[in-house]
Amino acid sequence: MRRPSEEVIKDIEKFDAIRDGWPKLDSLVNELKASPTPVQGIDALLGVFERHPGATSGSGVLMTVLHTLEALPGYAIHLVESLRRRPSVFAVMMVNRLLNSRVTHVGADSLIQLLEDTKAHPRCQRAVKAEIESVLEGRF
């Protein structure tokens, strides 16, 4: 029997890579995708990136999270908010993918300016800054 999206989302919000292991997240993401309203989980999925801002692989599960987010309508505005709240390598990767798709703005926000502002964010970790520099370096 399928669990309601809300229950799956709560489990994603509580997910801890050290305590639970990446395979648990993979299972939760698949459960969310199969739920009736996966779009409700956008912020919970972005929260995984925020709790693991310097992570670059997560045993491949973080790419599953990225692909899941990209398949959900309206994720981009949540992505911008997430990057402002707690910059992460994967959020920067997602912005780069938008830029590569010729998306330059989300709403009124310039994605290039967002990256520049994020780089100056007081909570921006060294790994995130390096990812931003890599993205920006090829843009000018």
DSSP strand count: 2
The secondary structure category is mainly alpha
Largest sheet data: 2 strands, antiparallel
Strand order of the largest sheet: 1-2
Task: Tell me, briefly, the overall form.
Answer: globular
CA distance, first residue to last residue: 52 Å
CA radius of gyration is 15 Å
Strand composition percent: under 5%
Provide the low-confidence segments as ranges. none
Task: Write down the domain tally.
Answer: 1
User: Average pLDDT value?
Assistant: 94
Helical stretch tally: 9
What does this protein structure show overall?
A two-stranded antiparallel sheet has the order 1-2. It has 9 helices and 2 strands; from the N terminus they run αααααααββαα. The radius of gyration is 15 Å and the shape is globular. The protein has one domain. It is mostly helical and 140 residues long.
Offer a concise description of the structure.
This protein is mostly helical and 140 residues long. It has nine helices and two strands. The longest helix has 12 residues, at 22-33.
Chain-wise SSE layout:
Layout: H1 5-14, H2 17-20, H3 22-33, H4 42-51, H5 61-70, H6 75-85, H7 89-100, E1 105-106, E2 109-110, H8 111-119, H9 126-137
Antiparallel strand pairs: 1-2
